[in-house]
Amino acid sequence: EQVFLKSVTMPQISAEELGSSILVEAERSMPIDIESAYLDYHIIKSDEGNGNMEVLLAASPKKEVDAFIEVVECAGLTPIIAEPEIAAIARSVILTQDAKTAAVIVEIGANRTRLIGFDNNSVISTGSVNFSADLINQLMAEKLKIDIKEAKKIKWDKNLFEDSKYGSTAKLVLEKPLDVVIKEIKNNIDAWQTELQNNDGGFSPKKVIISGGGANIPTLVEKLQTALKIPVEKAKPLISIFGKETEKSPMKEHLSLSFSAVIGLAIRGAILDSPEVYKNFD
Fold this sequence. Notes:
Elements: E1 4-11, H1 15-29, E2 37-47, E3 52-61, H2 62-74, H3 85-93, E4 103-108, E5 113-119, E6 122-129, H4 133-144, H5 148-152, H6 167-195, E7 207-211, H7 220-228, E8 232-234, H8 239-242, H9 253-256, H10 260-272, H11 275-278
Parallel strand pairs: 4-7, 7-8
Antiparallel strand pairs: 1-3, 2-3, 4-5, 5-6
Helix pairs in contact: 3-10, 4-6
């Protein structure tokens, strides 16, 4: 996913001036050729007291976005919006009552771990770590001297560490990679605090939310909480759909952690699902 995000502070200006100012700021601060990219922005907050506003910029190469759009159109569908996967993840794991609370989302996926800084109802910055289900499966296969297909069959649940066959190896395999994850979370929090220190209140996360299939790794919550010294919890994306009645879902809660992006996109689609949105489509 080649999406670039940048939170910037700009002076409050008129709507007419904003577009050109956003373009200049994006060209200055984003590591991408803006002329060959789609660019959009979201005003996170506006402070009349100091005359500034905090703006989130998002850009992605046109060829990447166009490729996704082409696939959707080939399926006979008409796309009406494209958004970064991290925005969908945040929408599904941040509950409405916590939208104003600063948090770090740790999305442990199949091929990487995303770090998402969230505050004031918006993603503010992102990072990534070379830690994933694929990496752990590869390390397990090497350590146990088994085929990667066999390693993928190992069930990563709360009972794994007690397993007589795989438990001790799993603990050993996870130790160093998780230390790297913890270090990168700390580094990213420090960087975001420095980057946003001039904004009102800066960035001070009150909790860490873990999602993705890797969130089911045994003792992960406890290990992160001990190292980071702030509350850590697993995401509950089903609450965004079913409220407190998650038992009505045909999907088990621990499985839903792997579908946070899909759930977030579905919520966005539900918000857009009105006759007004589609009035200009045949």
